[in-house]
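Data deposition worksheet. Section B asks for the primary sequence of the deposited chain exactly as it was used as input, without tags or linkers unless they were present during the calculation. Section C holds the resulting structure in token form. Section D is free text for depositor observations; keep each observation to a single sentence. Incomplete worksheets are returned to the depositor.
Section A, Depositor: J.P.
Section B:
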Amino acid sequence: MSESVILAVADLCKSYGEGDARHTVITDLSFALKRGECYGLLGPNGAGKTTTLRLCLGLTAPDSGSIHLAGKPIPHEARTARARIGVVPQADNLDPDFTVTENLLVFGRYFDIDDATIHARIPKLLEFANLTSKKDANIGELSGGMKRRLTLARALINDPDLIFMDEPTTGLDPQARHMIWERLKSLLNQGKTIFLTTHFMDEAERLCDRLAVIDHGRMIAEGSPRDLIAQHIEAEVVEVYGDNAVAWGEAVGRNKAARIETSGETVFCYTNDPKPLLDILRTADDMRYLHRPANLEDLFLKLTGREMRD
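Section C:
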């Protein structure tokens, strides 16, 4: 594995169950993370994102394929590799019996870091998480955003090279999300590597240097957000709303004036030349519309579909 690559996954496969009940979760998945980048893993519910993270961390053994994390083969040397890794799980698992500072101290001991070193790191981590004033607070006194920032700070106690983040801003209000984004950008500026799973397309578009879209355990696209959007989606989108929007969209589609997708009562018109559509819509009093550039959500929906997943 190249020194510039901190995580390499090749031909990974994973299934659960036996016989007719056997369910394939990951199929021939390959990717690599370069040091210092933010790499995103996107996919609908059940696409295999969390299973992929568990495989990479050595918490689950693959059926076939290879994983090298921080230069170590996984799962055989997972414990050694994880000494250089930080993990922010989907759900906060802070210890409610300890204060903010004690959570950091106890977690640092899991890495066999001496107390003097941990105590030296804690003030900077509390400052990083904007929790200095809460250092002696009990976990039950913290808001959801504070808990999330503490979970992020805890993941940094061992000064990791790579941080795994499984949907780090789910359930947070916009202000808390933006603060987390600022902290993640500062980590990238320090040369850290981030492996991110998220359902927020704007989050992936803001943070990720590269990303992979997976569905049914297979990779269906990989590249930078901008390159993927340009490769798969028309440049402009016109969203049309109103009682007559669906019928209007069907006519537009028949005339091939744009690629049309309908979701409920909203019509999405994908086109490289929106002017003819906009000229018509400006005189249509019974419909509202929004004109915008294509984004990562458009790409995601085109590749994985608009149907709900459980």
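Section D:
The first helix runs from residue 49 to 56.
The chain is about 35% helix and 30% strand.
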